[in-house]
Design a protein that fits this description.
This protein has helices at 2-27, 53-67, 72-94, 98-114, 150-168, 176-191, 202-223, 232-249, 253-260, 262-277, 290-296, 301-321, 324-351; strands at 31-32, 48-49, 121-123, 129-131, 136-141, 144-149. It is mainly alpha-helical and 352 residues long.
Length: 352
């Protein structure tokens, strides 16, 4: 019952804040207007406000400070989340270079790692755990001894940076992103009860997961077709960052996140490979993501969004039932099916 209350509280705050943010975005010209700024990946029509990260962040900050036991790691997560939203707002206004955004992603990821978030070990699909905290560099600063877990911290920075961009790329259709992010957060919260590896309680991780899910649920009605506000870079990158954080707070959840987010993950990997093959920058947006392919074969935006939600829901349930090897097999099977589907769509497109 307490978890449901947290979910509803976060959703209510985000829901109430979103109309205010829509007005603010219009007044500050934080909008997407094809007449002023063409974007090859956009699927919307008309002038749509951006800045979707603001209501989601408000839906998270207030319940966290009221209900969650705040420690150093939680503070680091909230600081980094705020920086991501600020970065996104600058991008909404000034259309920042994707290269500068990428550098900023790395810096923000490093900041939260400095607050204690890292990946000391990951689950081995074949049993046991793979230790990542064996390489340690210690140094003295201001009279105190500090340690850097080289592999664990570096991998955390890479993972957070990757998932920020990967999830952000899967927001091109109305309602697509907040739906699957909320579902993923809920399942990561449920799985957090098995084991927690950081100096943070299982209750805190569970509470934080449901708050993240609730904030995105509250934002969803305004983003669902026909959308009244877009997530923008602030909303997309924030969603990815929060899922990345949740996935490494507890033992074994990195692999679980890979399974639940299989479609966005495979789509992002394929997109990077496709751009490199075409001798294009992997950072430059284009029309070629999986949701674009679905639009090309006649799928509506509502159907695409619901498809992403259902796949995330099915894979979330599977993550509760499957062991390590079975999760790996499931991910490989999904990857093969998705790639075959993409190749078939491209073949049909070439013939027509």
């Amino acid at each position: 019952m307490e978890l449901l209350y947290l979910l509803i509280s976060a959703a209510a705050i985000a829901y109430v804040a979103t109309p205010w943010v829509i007005k603010l975005a219009k007044n500050l010209d934080l909008v997407t207007d094809k007449r002023k700024r063409a974007h090859p990946a956009h699927t919307h029509e008309g002038i749509i406000p951006r800045a979707g990260g603001i209501p989601v962040l408000l839906g998270i900050l207030i319940p966290v400070f009221v209900y969650v036991q705040v420690n150093k790691i939680v503070i680091g997560i909230l600081i980094a989340s705020t920086l991501i939203v600020l970065l996104g707002l600058f991008d909404d206004k000034y259309d920042l270079s994707p290269y500068w955004r990428f550098v900023a992603n790395i810096i923000i990821s490093a900041i939260v790692v400095m607050f204690g978030l890292g990946i000391p070990f990951i689950s081995n699909p074949f049993g046991g755990a793979i230790r990542l905290d064996t390489v340690r560099v210690s140094f003295s600063l201001f009279g105190s001894t500090h340690s850097i877990l080289v592999v664990a911290d570096l991998l955390a920075i890479i993972w957070l940076t990757w998932i920020m961009n990967m999830v952000n790329w899967s927001k091109g259709v109305d309602g697509q992103l907040p739906g699957f992010v909320a579902i993923a957060a809920l399942f990561l919260g449920l799985l957090s009860q098995r084991f927690v590896s950081h100096d943070i309680s299982t209750q805190t991780v569970m509470f934080f997961s449901f708050i993240v899910a609730g904030a995105h649920i509250g934002f969803l009605p305004f983003n669902y077709f026909p959308q009244k506000i877009m997530p923008g870079y602030s909303g997309g990158a924030l969603a990815g960052f929060l899922l990345g954080v949740l996935s490494i707070l507890s033992f074994g959840k990195v692999g679980t996140a890979v399974l639940i987010l299989a479609v966005p993950m495979i789509d992002a990997t394929y997109t990077i490979m496709r751009r490199i093959k075409q001798k294009k920058s992997p950072f430059r947006a284009d029309w070629g993501h999986f949701h674009h392919r679905l639009l090309e074969i006649g799928w509506g935006k509502r159907r695409i969004a619901i498809f992403y939600w259902l796949v995330s829901l099915i894979l979330g349930v599977a993550s509760l039932l499957l062991n390590g090897v079975e999760k790996l097999i499931a991910f490989v099977v999904i990857g093969i099916l998705l790639l075959v589907f993409i190749f078939l769509i491209e073949e049909i497109k070439e013939r027509t």
